[in-house]
Structures are given as C-alpha cells and as structure tokens.
Amino acid sequence: QVQPVESGGGSVQAGGSLRLSCPPPPLPLTIHATGWFRHAPGKEREFVSAITWPHGRTYYADSVKGRFTISRDNANDTVHLQMNSLKSEDTAIYSCAVGGKKFLQGAVLDSPHEYDYWGQGTQVTVSS
Length: 128
Description:
Elements: E1 10-13, E2 18-22, E3 33-39, E4 46-52, E5 58-60, E6 68-73, E7 78-83, E8 92-99, E9 117-118, E10 122-127
Parallel strand pairs: 1-10
Antiparallel strand pairs: 2-7, 3-4, 3-8, 4-5, 6-7, 8-9, 8-10
C-alpha cells in the first residue's frame, strides 16, 4: 500500500491524551518530512505539525504549541504525534503526509500541496 497508514485516533474527554502514529510506507522516494494535518467538519484543512530529517527540526501550529509533540522513532522511522491537554476544538480527522527532498530545498512545511503521499486519516474526537 503506497500511502501512510495512520493509527492511534479515538475518543477522549477534554484534558486527555492520544498518540497518533505514522509508519513509513514503501515509497519510491526518501522521506525528508512528515506532516500532520487535520480537517474538521465545516472547516478547511489545517496544518498541525511537521518534522524533517536528517536535521530533526520540528514545527507546530500556534494552536497546538505546548500541547502536542512530534517525534520520530529512528528504529523504524515511524513518526508519532503526542497530543496532550486535548480540547474539543481539536476534534478532527488527522492525516499524515510525507514528502521527499524538496523539503531539503526549502519547501513550505505547512503547505499541504508540498507533500507527495497522504494517509486516509484517523478520527480524533474530544468531548467537553
């Protein structure tokens, strides 16, 4: 399957935590960035977070800074998004996207158009 397959979504109460995972799919390119985006009903798709390598730089939307942490497991190249202190407004479908060497050349991490492969998404529901 040539697309990321996210896991870890679910339903939690406000203040709770979830950890999303995005393992690397078998792709004909070397992945240099993984981004997480979310799409809530009635809203546009929104950038959440991204990580690049080999530099390991991380980026966050202002709305999740201090609550979400993105990381990469170097043993298996899986990218995780740890989400703490969840709020009802975090409710959305979360998708991971991966991209290649363009991200070494200055591609904009929060632009969904820069990514090459997208997962189907995983639902995150936060009840207040």
